[in-house]
Specification:
Elements: H1 2-14, H2 17-37, H3 41-61, H4 65-85, H5 87-98, H6 117-132, E1 137-141, H7 148-151, E2 155-160, H8 163-169, E3 180-184, E4 187-193, H9 209-220, E5 224-228, E6 235-239, E7 242-247, H10 249-261
Parallel strand pairs: 1-3
Antiparallel strand pairs: 1-5, 2-4, 3-4, 5-6, 6-7
């Protein structure tokens, strides 16, 4: 017992304030990394790495030289494989870090549509009109995460948001009706854009390609996406990987006002419907 007390005393003698800060910072980083990768494939990857690491240590302690050699080399090669195999998860992780409060420190005051109530009115008007005629539509409203890679796949429009223009873009059998419209600020920036599809396999079979594309871009960014089903005429919103369906004119307007006038993360509007 005395030897343990002596060891503890000697430990605290050499412990510095910077060491305590260092340990706390590492603990905070590990905590937030685990929080970010929760319920993703990356979490299973971390579990696998931990298991392999323990087996590696056991092989070292037990002098299992061949197994130790194989695992040591596998760990080295595995670091490169992780970057390739889990590129989508790593990209999503970095985007979440960039959208965090820390990331906002580096934000430059770029176009915001917090005060663009006129644009919201036009979007709601167009969505309701297209819903009444069962005209399929996919409207992406850019927020903090810039969608330059998606914008590059479409045709430049760069016009003020108007209900008439949105309705014309999505008229069936026109060149741009199958793609997505990207709204940046109070401008219809591009049309006919291609969006990444969601990798979620547990979605309702009722959801078509437009809804899967809406969920896909909402998983990869903080964009808010409005879809109008050409089969049912129902209006839906996708945000943060969640889909809210069967919106009315009133609920759609309320959702857009909450998303762009207040802190959307604190809103109770969003619910997952899969």
């Amino acid at each position: 017992m005395s030897s343990i007390l002596i060891y503890i005393q000697s430990f605290f003698k050499v412990l510095k304030v910077t060491d305590i800060i260092d340990i706390l910072l590492i603990a905070i980083i590990v905590y937030y990394l685990l929080k970010l990768i929760k319920e993703t494939r990356a979490l299973q990857l971390v579990k696998g790495i931990i298991i392999i690491f323990f087996i590696w240590q056991i092989s070292s302690w037990g002098h299992l030289n061949t197994l130790n050699y194989l695992l040591r080399n596998a760990m080295q090669v595995g670091l490169f494989a992780i970057v390739v195999i889990f590129q989508p998860e790593l990209r999503s992780l970095l985007e979440k870090v960039g959208r965090s409060r820390v990331g906002k420190i580096f934000d430059i005051a770029a176009g915001s549509i917090n005060s663009e109530s006129a644009a919201i009115d036009e979007i709601v008007k167009a969505s309701v009109k297209m819903a009444s005629t069962k005209t399929g539509a996919l409207i992406v409203m850019e927020r903090e995460t810039k969608l330059g890679d998606v914008i590059s796949t479409g045709t430049l429009i760069n016009a003020d948001v108007s209900a008439e223009l949105l309705e014309n873009i999505f008229v069936p059998n026109t060149p741009l009706h199958d793609g997505a419209v990207i709204i940046r600020g109070n401008r219809i920036y591009t049309a006919g854009c291609f969006l990444p599809l969601t990798s979620n396999d547990n979605l309702s079979r009722e959801l078509g390609t437009r809804h899967r594309a809406a969920l896909g871009i909402s998983e990869a960014s903080d964009a808010l996406v409005i879809t109008v089903s050409e089969e049912t005429g129902k209006i839906s919103i996708a945000v943060n990987g969640n889909l809210t369906r069967n919106l009315t004119e009133k609920s759609l307007r309320s959702a857009l006002n909450k998303a762009f006038s207040f802190d959307s993360e604190k809103s109770n509007f969003w619910r997952s419907e899969k």
